[in-house]
Design goal:
Largest sheet: 7 strands, antiparallel
Radius of gyration: 16 Å
Number of helices: 4
Shape: globular
Helix content: 25-40%
Number of strands: 7
């Protein structure tokens, strides 16, 4: 299953890239994050492998995230014409996913964030969920992007809100 989401954020691209790449901010905008810790490498750097624990209601899911692309490698002084790429591979019980983020300058103080997501499922149950409810994955990804926008622009923190 593949889909694309996008959103415009009223902040300069370099600032958006730095916020997005900093895992310390994840719990503030990514609903359900319980833990995000590097197992190998340094947070936010290419090749870093992290253990991620998510919770939704009573259900807890653990997975491994690997940063597979970070271009440019340094998120300071990014040339105007450059596109920032931030890709992650996520592997959990019965599923594999890749998320490819692209940040482009929409204006001097505005960033266009486009995200391609792809999921593959190993278990029969997850394959059925993917087939019967593909829109729920797309909708959840868009919600994450909207939550990030609210965090980046207004400092809004999703913790304490319902998942």
């Amino acid at each position: 299953m593949k889909y694309t989401n996008s959103i415009e954020i009223d902040l300069p691209r370099e600032q958006v890239a730095q916020l997005l790449a900093d895992p310390a901010h994840l719990p503030k905008w990514l609903r359900g994050v319980v833990l995000h810790e590097p197992v190998q490498g340094i947070h936010g750097q290419l090749g870093t492998e992290s253990r991620v624990v998510m919770q939704s209601g009573r259900r807890t899911m653990e997975c491994t995230e690997t940063i597979t692309r970070l271009d440019p490698a340094v998120l300071r002084g990014i040339p105007k014409e450059s596109v920032v790429h931030f890709d992650r591979e996520i592997v959990g019980a019965g599923m594999w996913s890749v998320v490819r983020d692209r940040l482009t300058e929409a204006g001097p103080e505005t960033t266009f964030w486009e995200q391609d997501s792809e999921y593959r499922f190993d278990s029969l149950l997850m394959r059925l969920v993917g087939l019967l409810m593909p829109g729920s994955f797309h909708k959840q990804s868009q919600q994450h992007m909207q939550d990030f926008k609210a965090f980046a622009e207004q400092g809004k923190d999703v913790r304490g809100e319902g998942n």
